[in-house]
Amino acid sequence: MIGKWTTGAMLALAPALAGASRYNLQDPNSALGQDIYDLHHLILWVCVVIFVGVFGFMFYAILKHRKSAGHPAAHFHENTTVEVIWTVIPFVILIGIAVPATRTLVHQRDTSAADLTIKVTGYQWKWGYDYLKGDGEGISFFSTLATPREQIDGTAPKGENYLLEVDQPVVVPVGKKVRLVITAADVLHAWWVPSLAAKQDAIPGFVRDTWFKAEREGLYRGQCAELCGKEHGFMPIVVNVLSAEKYAAWVNERKQKPAAAAEDANKQWTLAELSARGRKVFAENCVACHQGDGMGIPGSFPALNGSKVVTGSKQAQIATVLHGVVRDGKVTLMQPFRQLSDVDLAAVLTYTRNSWNNLGGEAVMPAEVAAARSSSPQALHGERASALRIAASALHAAAPAGHAGAAR
Amino acid sequence: MSTAVHDHPHGHDDHAHHPSGLARYLTTTNHKDIGTMYLWFSFAMFLTGGVMALVIRAELFQPGLQVVNPDFFNQMTTLHGLIMVFGAIMPAFVGFANWQIPMMIGAPDMAFPRLNNWSFWLLPPAALLLVTSLFVPGGAAAAGWTLYPPLTVQMGMGMDLAIFAVHILGMSSILGSINIITTLLNMRAPGMTLMKMPLFCWTWLITAYLLLAAMPVLAGAVTMILTDRHFGTHFFNPAGGGDPVLFQHIFWFFGHPEVYIIAIPAFGVISQVIPAFSRKPLFGYTSMVYATASIAILSFIVWAHHMYTTGMPVQAQLFFMYATSLIAVPTGVKVFNWVATMWKGSLSFETPMLFAIGFLFLFTIGGFTGLVLAIVPIDIQLHDTYYVVAHFHYVMVAGALFAAFAGVYFWIPKWTGRMYDETLGKWHFWLSFIFFNMAFFVQHFLGLAGMPRRIPDYALQFADFNMVSSIGAFGFGLAQLLFLYVVVKCIRSGEQAPAKAWEGADTLEWTHLPSPAPYHSFETPPMVK
Amino acid sequence: MSTGAELNKQRARKNLRTALVLGLLALASLAAFAHKVWHLG
Question: What is the ipTM for the molecules in this complex?
Fold first, then answer.
């Protein structure tokens, strides 16, 4: 039975050796990833050989040295030579593994001489990207799960990239060394894209860094890899690797974006328009906790349907989404949503005030949100700018950890 | 159920000495009673934690959210971990220690019988705290069994209950360790030197020292979380100058020795079972003792291999990588010794031996994946994925749990005076072996392909392996009900077992005591040559 | 029976001494931990 199972395992491993990512690490899209992939193969083979050797002995004993076959028990119980040999040989093998492992690690930790530096911030439950240095400097956006709630709840068929799709992927140029400086706003997260061989914990209050250099264009997907609360499984990462020209075009287009947002803000909105837009904003930002029926999750997340905050004064509700809910000096899971535009905030507030059993019949206008925002002590731009300053100083202060490998 | 263990097989003289019914178990200071309670308690916790595992696997049976919401899912993973580690596996081996250590060294009881009673009775309240935390507002702790802040600071009062439970469990472990070490150092029969102790006793001596050193650190770490939550300290709060990673260092300084606290007594059980069914002395007894001690010492300098992705300096990563790889040497020595013990023996394959061979085979796979994970660049790819989940279940389930099963089947004739049903025992082994691999082998592939752990829902390319894994998990769970049946059947109607139930068994409990072992044994110590 | 009982009496004092040392060991572990954390803070 055991033998049969071993054969099964070998068969299962066979395609892995042919490079199918189903049984193995994902196909690497960087030289570093290839090094790690090869290192894993080396160790896997060393282990397989030792395993087969040791258990070859064991199964031979099971077959030949059994009582039912009449084998008498020998009485030896030590042999210094053998014991020394099987202590020393593994030690030598370990040194053989340590050498390439050390080389790869030193290379992996060398974040110097980057062409592009992006600050990555983990939030519950989305990723923020700020382009700090290199082409695209100043670009800044959030990236949230794009899979519709219905697919997760099973009321709609699941798409090809179920749970691995975002509204705005992080865009990088091909063949350039991209350094990521990573931090978090609330709890631990971890930024991970397997095919780029980049994983780094995002730690609130601290800045850590990693890097990757994509060799092929295309979309590369990953997920948050450190438990960060309820929606931990729902904050994917998508990296869009573009050619130099396409990347330049993307940077150009992003720079135009603030103008479009301003145009939006000046538009005259009707309640119906705002509510329709708000429905979308709600689905992207609020539904995970407050639920589609606005009933929340009793004991964990309050209902919006019939809530006094939602049906009460507009000012209080605007303040809630701008500043989050602070209890005992700590921001609760209801965090500030200042990153959303005035129009989006106005829209989602309008939606909650006019949905389910909430029939206020009143719209919140973008201008009202804008007024509340500018009178608040921590206006978006101020906060953003200071966050950028912190990241930038960390950038200069901390010498890259893997400096020793710069020669490579 | 517990009373059945003793009331049937034991003579009526015993009842004169102690109260009967519940009062007997509340007040008992007898190592055999307490050992029995530990074992039944751990089995009850094993089933509780197992049901939680099945909730997890039911949700992961297919993509999408069907069974539970993500928050409850996280509560399940957290409680499953805490309950299995602290409630099931650790008490199971303390149960073995209670039953076996006095009998194996020729002592009348543990050194501190009343302390022993207290160590056990601390456990049920702690378990109750963990389980009832599910029903408080906000639910149970949902930050993973590793309790990493700042997430732990966001939790509701279920977190506080979990912290108190950990305090109590830690207290119980420390008291139990003091008792075990004292017993082993002072209560050995005349003539039994340390180097003549059965290896199971050696492994417990070493484990108890690990517990003494590691448990206070865990207690300190969770206390810091408690004060961060309620008393305004900022140990782990960056806004107040604290550092979330500090907790990880402290936790794993406890957590890695904890892995060996679980594994080393399992090594001890296996080191008794394999020679008995090979009818040949253990190969390399001395090197086994030294290898175990080396593993224990190394376990204190490798903790940060759980933290390669926190971004520590490359020099630190290199140190922890080398130190961790080094553990492969003494672990290898142990595996080689076990195989050499079987070599040219006269092997037979009763259930305890099957579980021991299953242990050897699967634990080695877990050891090899451990070596893979020790290598920093590979670990950075695999950290927090299902590869890690597969790895530690090979070590904890196929390692520790299979060893515990081997131990139960091995010693139950001595404990109850009755033989278990060999056919059913073998069924239990083969079902456990097959379903275990079905549940966990495929998780290696999931991890390699990029599925993170602790997620309630996953991308479509992971669907088929998750389905296989869930089916395996349910099969494994059901197989354990068969184990319960085998044990109950053995207690109620098993055949009378001889004093020396196994031909190759040669420790004192087999050679000097009848089956079942009398309620008071070795009141006059035996002479050991 | 009686020899065993006598042996146990002799052992009792030794056991208490051992337990005291082990208890101190656990406390030392806690103290070392507190010391370390104090200096990190």
Answer: 0.90
